[in-house]
Design brief:
The protein has 279 residues and is mostly helical. The chain has 13 helices and no strands.
């Protein structure tokens, strides 16, 4: 076998592998879109293309007294608040860990990472009891605070790597020009950290948007239920029917904005994730 043939076979194997990964990632979403366009009686016919496309499932999503619209509003409030708070605290914590010299900072960073690995189900019962005593059940804060506790370590970890990759000379030059440490951070470091901050914001927002377990336990009425809980509680014509078509249509509505967001800002996300990989 000639070197040219081996190279062509290697390229063919690479392309086949990429195609298999794309198919593996796209197939579930494609099936969800196709099934959402089918009549409820035709969902299980296993056809790759709907024979008689219909929007009745999407009409059913928005038809129940606008509860789904309220759920979208709740998810936006919860995920937006979690993202803003996690970024504010995460930026300062990551900068301190990356730039300042103090004892045990590697231990602190390790504790942040360990916190993100802690199973949420283990603290669900004590959290519910605590929030019940505070009268917080069925309120936004009962979902925002736990989401921050899981999103903040992720943000600190990503931003710390980003700050460490920045050359110290930039901050030192600003200090020489008369800036205080705070001014150097605001005017020099923070503008350069935009790709990392943006990447962290996207990842934290998606994590908070998709959270279900804590929201399902803390929200009781549509006044505070996010979309993940609202979709799970969709009811069919009778109590023995599962509205698969309506749930799939709602899943498409919830997923599409996230996909569009990632596709639009994919360059910033990639640059933020790879920052610090090569020094």
């Amino acid at each position: 076998m000639t070197p040219l043939t081996r190279r062509r076979l290697g390229d063919a194997g690479l392309y086949l592998g990429i195609a298999a990964i794309i198919l593996f990632c796209v197939a579930p979403f494609y099936w969800m879109v196709v099934s959402s366009l089918k009549d409820p009686k035709a969902i299980f016919d296993n056809s790759l293309v709907p024979r008689a496309p219909t929007l009745m499932n999407y009409e059913a999503v928005f038809g129940a007294q606008n509860t789904f619209v309220f759920a979208l509003r709740n998810s936006l409030i919860i995920a937006g608040t979690v993202t803003v708070v996690a970024l504010v605290f995460g930026v300062f914590a990551a900068y301190a860990i990356a730039r300042l010299d103090f004892r045990g900072k590697n231990v602190v960073l390790g504790l942040f990472l360990a916190t993100s690995m802690f199973p949420g189900v283990a603290i669900l019962t004590p959290l519910f009891q605590l929030f019940a005593n505070l009268g917080w059940i069925d309120t936004y804060q009962a979902m925002i605070i736990p989401d921050i506790s899981f999103s903040l370590p992720l943000g600190v970890w990503i931003l710390t790597s980003f700050f460490r990759a920045m050359p110290w000379e930039l901050e030192q030059a600003a200090r020489v020009d008369g800036c205080t440490r705070g001014q150097a951070f605001r005017q020099v470091i923070l503008p350069l950290a935009v790709p990392g901050v943006f990447t962290t914001a996207i990842l934290v927002f998606i994590s908070a948007w998709n959270e279900f377990m804590i929201a399902n336990s803390m929200s009781v009425t549509p006044a505070s239920q996010p979309v993940t809980v609202a979709i799970a509680q969709f009811s069919g014509i009778s109590q023995y029917e599962t509205p698969y078509g309506t749930q799939l249509a709602a899943g498409v509505i919830v997923t599409v904005p996230l996909i569009v967001l990632v596709l639009i800002f994919q360059r910033r996300i990639i640059s933020g994730l790879t920052a610090g990989g090569v020094k």
